[in-house]
Design the sequence.
């Protein structure tokens, strides 16, 4: 009789938790187990963004490096939701710290509380272990573009070190083709995680990358994360403005406003 | 240390009058579901003379269908279950267990020693080895089969691993224990 009671005690909570939450059972830290609503997030969020009414001024938030700073990212979302006239949010990469799918899910759960759609670019930490596969399944391609209003956004994987500095990353021929494919001459914003002036960027590709950006007449500016510090400047004396956002751990982000003849970048701390 | 402890304890068990068995022959087999060491994992184990400390080697497999990636894992586990409460009909419970494991997952995407192109200490953890810990409990029964007492146990464990524990400690507002913990269960058959 005692055994029956005991079995009930063991089995009932198990059944309740089975039906009430996903992730009760974990088979491997590197498993990539996703719900339907945790897949193709890049595609789904782009669909939302392109339906937003186009205004004279586009305003978006650029934040990044949420790696293992969940409490701070929750605070970021509260701060971001208090900003006015924001169209969308862009995450500069290092969504996760260990490249574990659970981490990507946690950040996505937090970012779902934003009043705006969000997009991501892959960071070096998101490539570790099975991270790259998880990113592709959950968000989408590592390199991608989309157009909104008079602007074209180009997201490029710049995490050279994760590929052993083998000359493959960033994919400059792809980048050049995307910049060239711009018949409407949309103002172009290129976004990566590791900036070309960082040691983790392939030294052999740095000049070519910077020159590719400088050669594009439609380039508005270019955005990065990774160094956990705000930075801005014309790093290659070629007229290209680089902006870098800080980490969630440092409780900061950028609010970027764009209009036809100009743009404004504000540093926000929360 | 736990390893040598359990082996040493077993060696004492191999005395005249007790079951005569070579020290390397396992005492039991386990089959486990979930617990971050495979969808299913199984393998041999040893138990200390007083039956409180078990050490197991489990070979785990996670099919792509359940894990998004097919993963093979090998794990060493040590479980301490200090108390035994006898029930009727040779049933008993071990109400509390605590244990730890170290798993190794095979695959070219997992590193033990990071490649030399990374600066020293760039990533501080290995992605192939994963240490974890758990608490749990067991229900067992001593069955008499062919004049030999055979012990069967059902166990459950609630566990987590280093990377999630660190995340939890640093994010006490957002993360709950249920976010980092997961359930596993298994059966043990004494040989």
Sequence:
């Amino acid at each position: 009789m005692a055994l029956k009671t005991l079995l009930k005690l063991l089995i009932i909570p198990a059944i309740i938790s089975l039906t009430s939450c996903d992730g009760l059972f974990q088979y491997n830290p590197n498993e990539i187990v996703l719900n339907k609503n945790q897949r193709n997030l890049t595609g789904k969020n782009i669909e939302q963004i392109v339906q937003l009414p186009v205004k004279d001024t586009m305003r978006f938030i650029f934040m990044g490096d949420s790696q293992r700073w969940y409490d701070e990212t929750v605070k970021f979302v509260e701060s971001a939701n208090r900003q006015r006239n924001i169209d969308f949010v862009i995450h500069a990469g290092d969504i996760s710290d260990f490249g574990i799918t659970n981490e990507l899910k946690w950040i996505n759960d937090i970012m779902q509380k934003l009043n705006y759609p969000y997009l991501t670019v892959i960071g070096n930490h998101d490539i570790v272990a099975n991270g790259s596969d998880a990113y592709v399944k959950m968000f989408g391609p590592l390199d991608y573009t989309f157009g909104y209003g008079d602007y074209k956004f180009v997201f490029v994987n710049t995490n050279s070190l994760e590929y052993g500095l083998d000359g493959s990353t960033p994919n400059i021929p792809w980048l050049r083709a995307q910049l060239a494919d711009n018949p409407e001459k949309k103002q172009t914003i290129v976004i990566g995680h590791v900036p070309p002036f960082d040691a983790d960027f392939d030294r052999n590709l740095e000049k070519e990358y910077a020159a590719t950006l400088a050669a594009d007449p439609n380039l508005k500016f270019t955005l990065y994360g990774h160094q956990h510090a705000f930075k801005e400047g014309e790093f290659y004396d070629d007229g290209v403005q680089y902006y870098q956002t800080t980490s969630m751990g440092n409780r900061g982000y950028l609010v970027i406003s764009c209009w036809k003849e100009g743009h404004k970048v504000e540093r926000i701390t929360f | 240390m736990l390893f040598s402890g359990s082996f040493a304890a077993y060696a004492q068990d191999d005395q005249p009058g007790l079951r005569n068995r070579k020290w390397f022959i396992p005492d039991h087999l386990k089959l486990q579901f979930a617990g971050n060491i495979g969808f299913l994992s199984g393998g041999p184990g040893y138990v200390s003379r007083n039956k409180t400390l078990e050490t197991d080697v489990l070979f785990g497999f996670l099919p792509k269908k359940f894990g998004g990636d097919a993963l093979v894992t090998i794990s060493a586990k040590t479980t301490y279950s200090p108390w035994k409460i006898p029930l009727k009909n040779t049933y008993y419970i071990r109400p509390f267990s605590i244990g730890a494991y170290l798993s190794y997952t095979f695959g070219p995407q997992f590193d033990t020693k990071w490649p030399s192109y990374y600066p020293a200490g760039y990533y501080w953890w290995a992605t192939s080895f994963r240490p974890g810990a758990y608490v749990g409990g067991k229900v067992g029964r001593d069955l008499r089969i062919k004049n030999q007492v055979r012990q069967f146990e059902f166990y459950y464990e609630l566990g987590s691993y280093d990377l999630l524990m660190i995340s939890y400690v640093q994010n006490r507002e957002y993360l709950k224990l249920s976010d980092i913990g997961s359930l596993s269960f298994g059966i043990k058959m004494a040989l």
Q: What stands out?
A: Helices of chain A lie at 2-20, 41-50, 70-82, 101-111, 131-138, 172-180, 203-214. Chain A touches chain B through 47 residues (CB under 8 Å). DSSP finds seven helices and eleven strands in chain A. The mean pLDDT of chain A is 94.
